[in-house]
Design brief:
Length: 254
């Protein structure tokens, strides 16, 4: 029987808790956020145990987020310039747990470096996949492409072309809801857990979606979008820190 969080934590543009000793550090650069509204019932069974779809005005969302990962580092060590730097595109849903912690759930994470893909799959159980990818700029547009290699479905692809617009001085409630996410819900080694993160407040720009050709959502078990996206955003990026996963009761894992 699905539960209802009694009191979801408020959506805040800054991280509610700082992470003093991060497990992982990285930078996310040149992000394109493309979102569609979906019925919560259509995605509820795709979320980890102990979570339900997070909603705003009765709707939840599926996001296609493309960006450049830059210099992933472990345990406070300097970020790795080659293996830790690569394009990434993820398909994500929005979740909340019984403690009211809001987060995201990744249905897939395409990345162009095989070693980080293997580490993400083996170390965290995340659905990383190895893909041929590129991020390029031409004039005032950015193009993000990916074609899946392994483990599949082989050939699943995306091509996003966006034109960033003016800086958003005050994001809407929906824009905060879609971007101000301070953790990841996932099943780590057979148990539900929450991986917190922190970063500075987003600098967001509304963006024009010039082209969107993709089948990553269907490959992730989601219905193909029937309508245009409800939100298209761009950000130049933020430095990010991840803490250790915690169990449902909030106790950090060893």
């Amino acid at each position: 029987m699905p539960f209802k969080p009694s009191r979801p934590q408020p959506v805040t543009p800054e991280a509610p808790v700082a992470i003093p000793r991060p497990l992982l550090t990285q930078r996310w650069l040149d992000l394109a956020f493309v979102h569609w509204a979906v019925d919560p019932a259509a995605v509820a069974e795709l979320l980890p145990a102990g979570t339900v779809p997070d909603t705003l005005d009765g709707a939840t969302y599926v996001g296609l987020v493309a960006f450049r990962m830059h210099r992933v580092g472990w345990l406070g060590l300097p970020g790795v310039p080659y293996l830790g730097t690569f394009p990434e595109t993820n398909v994500r849903l929005y979740s909340v747990d019984a403690q009211g912690r809001r987060g995201v759930v990744f249905r897939s994470l395409d990345a162009s470096r095989l070693v980080p893909v293997l580490m993400g799959r083996a170390g965290f159980g995340l659905p990383y996949v190895w893909s041929r990818m590129a991020v390029s700029a031409e004039g005032d547009t950015l193009t993000y492409t990916s074609t899946r290699r392994w483990p599949g479905p082989r050939g699943a692809h995306s091509r996003l072309v966006v034109r960033p617009g003016a800086l958003i001085e005050e994001p809407t409630e929906l824009e905060h809801f879609l971007t101000a996410r301070w953790g990841l819900h996932h099943t780590f080694f057979g148990a539900a857990a929450y991986l917190p993160n922190d970063h500075p407040r987003w600098r967001l720009h509304r963006a024009e979606l010039i082209a969107c050709e993709e089948d990553l959502l269907v490959a992730a078990g989601l219905p193909a979008p029937a309508d245009e996206p409800v939100s298209v955003l761009y950000s130049p990026g933020v430095p990010v820190r991840f803490g250790r996963p915690s169990r449902p009761a909030g106790i950090p894992t060893p």
